[in-house]
Amino acid sequence: MLASVLIQYSVKSLNKEFDYLIPNNLIKRIRIGNKVIVPFGSSKVEGFVLNIHDNIDKSLEYREIIEIEESDFYLNDELLKLGKYMSDSLLCNLISCYQVMLPKALKASLKTNINRKYETKVYLNKNIDVDKYIFENKRNKREIEILNILKERECLKKEFGSSINRLIEKGIVVSETYEVNREVQVDEDKRNIYLTDEQKNAVKEIQNSNDNKFLLYGVTGSGKTEVYIELLKNVLKENKTGIVLVPEISLTPQIVARFKGVFGDKIAVFHSSLSEGEKYDEYRRIMNNEVSFVVGARSAIFAPLKNIGLIIIDECQSNTYKQESTPKYNAIDIAFKRSEYNNAKVVLGSATPLLEQYARAKKGVFHLIKLGNRISGKFPSFEIVDMNKETKKHNYIISDKLDAEISGSLSRNEQVILLLNRRGYSTFLSCSNCGYVYKCPNCDISLIYHKSSNSYSCHYCGYRVASSSICPKCHEEAIKDLGLGTEKLESLLLKKYNTKVLRMDADTTSTKNAHRKLINEFSSHKYNILVGTQMISKGLNFENVSLVGIINPDASLSIPDFRSSERTYELLSQTSGRVGRFDLPGKVIIQTYNPNNYVYQNVVKNDFESFFNYEMNIRHKLMYPPYFYICSILITSSTFEEASKGSIKVKEYLDKHLDENYIILGPSVSSIVRLNNKYRFNIMIKYKDNAKLLKVLKELNDINIKNVNIDINPNI
Which residues, including other chains, have CB under 8 Å from residue 464's CB and lie 6 or more apart? Predict the structure, then answer.
C-alpha cells in the first residue's frame, strides 16, 4: 500500500504529493488526514496523508513512511476539502491551508515539540495491612499523617512533595502516572437569563427560517449574547455542535464567561493567548467529542467538530477575522463554507456591521433581524465638544466640559472610561534646535516614546532604543516629546484628579490573562478611571460606569483608507455603548476639531441607517465595496529600485491579461514606504467577477515573480 503525502517544502510553488510505502506495522493505524514523518532527500520531514492507494509502479523504488505522529489527531474529510477550497480561492499552497487548521504543536514542520502534562496519583496498596504498618512505625509522624489521608481518598503525589517517596519504595503506597488536560482559566458568569419579547422573536425567527445566513443587527446593550445562548441551547437539544467566534477572546472575557456559566464543560476555549500545551489539550477534547461548542478567536473556525448546527460570529465587523499572513483567509468566508458542508446556520452579530454586510442583508442575501431596544431601556446622552474653542483656552487634552463631567462622576463614586486610540507616552520626538525627528531605522515611521520603559520604540518591527534628551544630529539637549498616547493621558489624569487610574492597551495587557485581571479589577471598583485604546470598545459591561470620553477621534478619520469613516463610526458607537447598560444614566463626550462631521453627527443620533446611506453613496461613486470587490498586490524588496521595477513588471502583466472590466490602480508606494527594511509598492484591482482574475493571478504566482503578495478582499 502507498500513501500520498503532502509535505512542507521550501519551494514556494511546490504543491505536490509524494508516494511512500506504508510499512506493515502502520497499515492498520494509518488513515487519510494523518500527520506522518517521511524521508525526503537526506532529511526527515512531516506531512499530511491525502490518499491511500495500491497503484504501485514497479519501475520505481519507494521509500517508507517512518512513523505516524499523533495518530489520534487528523484532518477529517471536511477539513481536507476545506483546505483545497482555501488553496484555490486564496491562491496559496495547500500545505499552508492545512497548517493553519492545527495548533502549533500539531503542525507539519521540521521540528515538533508537544509538551504534554502528566499527573501522578498515589493510593494505598490494597495488599498491605496499613493499620499494622502504622502501629509498627508510629514514631514516623509524617508517614502516619500521609497514610491517614490516603485511607480517606486518593491524592496527587505533588501534595506530599518528596516525603511520600519512601512509602512508594517500601510498597506501602502505589503510584500511577497518567496524562491530563491543562485547565484553561475562564471565569464563569452564572446569572439567570430572561429574554425580552424582542429577543424571543429573534430566536424564533432564526430557528424557524429556512435561510442559513443571518445578520443580527442589535444596538449596543440590546442583548445579542442572550440570543446566542438561547440558540446554542436549542442546538444542544438537537445533539448538534456549534462554534462561537469573537474578535479576540482576551479582549472579550466577559462574553466567554457567560457561555462558560451556561454550558460549563461542554465549552472548549480556543485562542492565541493559550499556551501551546493548553491548545493541544483543548484540541484533544474537541477531537474526542468531549465538547459541544468551541468559543474562540479566528482560528477556532477550523475546530474539528462534527455535525455542526450553528456558527455564531460576534462583532462581525471586526477586521481581526481576516488573517494578514498566508493563508489570508477571512473566518467569515470559512464559516459560510463550513455551513454548506454541514447544512448549518451562520449568525453574524453586530451593532455596527460592515457596510457590505448590511447591504447584503438589505438585499436579502443575509436574513436581517433587528434588536432596536436596549435591555436597560435607555441610551446614553451625547455631547460634542468643539476643541477649536478649547485650544483658545489652552485646553488641548481635556476640555472644560469633560473635566466637569469627570469630576462630577468621581464625586458620586461613579466610574469613567476614556478612549484614546494611540498607545505610548508621546507619538512624535523632535529636536527643537535642528528639527531632527527620531525615526525607526527599519521602517519609514516615527518612533514612539514609552515612559514606563524610558525608551523609543517602533510599533511595527519592535525596534527599541533608550531615550535621550540629546539630539544625535546637533548634539544639543533639545529633544521634545510631542503628541499624546494613553501613557501620557494616564499620567495627566493621576495628577489632575488624584484618583486611581487603570490603563489598558497593548503594553499593559501583553502578559497572559492580564486583560482579564484588569477588567476584574475595574469591575470591582479598585480603579475609578479606565484609559484605553480600541480594546476597551467592545464586549465589556460595567455597572458603575456613567461617563465615556472620546479623546482625539479625528486621528482615525484622517487615515488614508476608504473605510476610515466606517471604522471611526464603529469605534465611537461601540465605545459609547459601554455606558447606560444598567441602572445608571450614561453620558458620552466626544472631543473633536470637526464637530460638524457627518460621522460624529450620526453617532450622536445613534443613526446607523443615515450613516449607511451617506457612505454607500460615496462608495458607489468611487467604486469601492460593496459595489466592487478589491484585490491588493504588494511587491516588496530590500531596495527601492527593485521593488519599483517588480511592481511595473506586475502591472504590465495585469494590463496584458485583464480587460476593461478590471480597474487596475498603481503601482504606488505604500502608506508606509519601508517596513522591516523592505520597500513596498501596491497595486489595487477593482472588479466584479473574480473567475478570470483568479486564473490570471494564479498564472502570476506560477511565473514566480519574486516577492509578490496577493490578498483577495484585504483589510485596507
Answer: 453, 455, 456, 457, 458
Sheet holding 345-350, edge to edge: 267-270, 293-296, 241-245, 308-314, 345-350, 213-218, 367-371
Q: What are phi and psi of 513, to 5 degrees?
A: 65, 10
Distance CA 567, CA 556 (A): 8
Which long-range CB contacts under 8 A does 513-518 form with residues at least 24 apart? Answer: 513/185, 513/250, 513/273, 515/250, 515/251, 515/253, 516/185, 516/187, 516/250, 516/253
Q: How far is CA 560 from CA 479, 556, 557, 672, 673, in A?
A: 29, 9, 8, 11, 14
pLDDT at 110: 39
pLDDT digits (tens, 9 = 90+) for 192-216: 788 999 999 999 999 999 999 999 9
Cell numbers that stand for 485 in this block: 498616547
Instruction: Determine the average pLDDT of the residues in 207-231.
Output: 96
Three-class DSSP labels, 662-678? CEEEEEEEEEEEEECCE
Q: Residue for cell digits 492580564?
A: 514
Q: Going along 339-439, which residue ranges are E strands?
A: 345-350, 367-371, 381-386, 415-419, 428-431
Pick from 593, 596, 601: which is nearest to 392 by CA? 593
- Reported as a pLDDT band with limits 50, 70 and 90, residue 156 is confident
Q: How far is CA 114 from the centre of its chain?
A: 23
- Name the nearest CA neighbour of 310 among 366, 365, 232, 223: 232
**88-102, 174-188, 198-212, 416-430 — most confident range:** 198-212
Q: Which helix (H) or strand (E) holds 290?
A: none
Q: Using CA atoms, how far apart are residues 345 and 617, in angstroms rounded to an integer?
A: 31
Question: What does the pLDDT look like over 312-332, one tens digit per residue?
Answer: 999 999 999 999 999 999 999
Give the pLDDT score at 111: 40
Domains contained in the chain, CATH given: 2-106 (3.40.1440.60), 117-180 (no CATH), 197-371 (3.40.50.300), 381-423+485-616 (3.40.50.300), 629-712 (3.30.70.600)
Q: How confident is residue 188, by pLDDT bands cut at 50, 70 and 90?
A: low
Tell me the chain's radius of gyration from C-alpha atoms: 29
Q: In whole angstroms, how far apart are CA 23 and each of 2, 31, 40, 63, 68? A: 9, 13, 16, 10, 11
